[in-house]
Amino acid sequence: MKTSNEIESCNYCIYKKLLFDSLNDKEYQEVNNSRTEHIYSRGEIIRKEGDPINSFLYLRSGLIKLYKTNKSGKDHILSINKPGDFISLLSIFSNSVYKYSITAIEETKVCEVELQSLQKVIVSNSAFALRVLNRMSNVSDDIIESQFEIRQRQVKGRIAYFLLFLADRIYHGREFRLPITRREIGELISMTTENTIRTLSEFRKDGIISMDGKIITILDYDRMQSISKTG
């Protein structure tokens, strides 16, 4: 982890309107004075399950995964999150420690605001408090909806759903670099690594995708959508 100083003030952050645009100047100053910026390398743990919750985190750039580890040491990925997502809202008001781990899956920049300062602003600004509640609901709804959609599908449908998620919601294009390994894809969609590799190979042979190392290109988008819906 490295410390960064790219943002002079929250006023200049491109994600201001997602949450902080209801703050007055004094409240901005409160948040900004308790804010630090960090850069995490790929694979670096940002927070570990069981760590104390003492700050509010959000992504400025990069990608992260939220996951839980079972008693046998096997990980289950809950979600992949992109810039602008408020990755700690699921826990900061309900628990004293994190119930999941957070790891960077590519170089990731995170802003961290001391929890005490955020709570102070919430108490003084009801509009901001409602905005926080709304964002909390959105985060939890997205995870629940994604996990539900995955579990309604068979093997091919799960892979198709995941590839479309990357194309449409993360990279906004039909060519992208897989941000996680085949094993991690299996952890996210509750499949074995072998089934994940086999299905990707079948998609390639059928001309639905091309693969060059970790670079995936969706060649037949309509067919991929059909598999995602019916597979």
Order of helices and strands: EHHEEEEEEEHHHEHHEEH
Q: What proportion strand?
A: 15-25%
CATH topology of the largest domain: Jelly Rolls
Query: What percent of residues adopt helix (DSSP H or I)?
Result: 40-55%
Number of domains: 2
Shape descriptor: elongated
Report on this model:
The chain is an alpha+beta fold and 231 residues long. The strands form three sheets. The protein has a four-stranded antiparallel sheet. The chain folds into two domains: 2-150, Jelly Rolls (Sandwich), CATH 2.60.120; 153-230, Arc Repressor Mutant, subunit A, CATH 1.10.10.10. The protein has eight helices and eleven strands. The radius of gyration is 19 Å and the shape is elongated.
What attributes does this structure have?
231 residues; alpha+beta; Jelly Rolls; Arc Repressor Mutant, subunit A; 2 domains; 4-stranded antiparallel β-sheet; 11 strands
List the helices and strands and how they pair.
Blueprint: E1 2-4, H1 16-19, H2 25-33, E2 35-40, E3 45-47, E4 55-61, E5 64-69, E6 75-81, E7 101-104, E8 108-114, H3 115-124, H4 126-151, H5 155-170, E9 175-177, H6 182-189, H7 193-205, E10 209-212, E11 215-218, H8 221-230
Antiparallel strand pairs: 1-2, 2-8, 3-7, 4-8, 5-6, 5-7, 9-11, 10-11
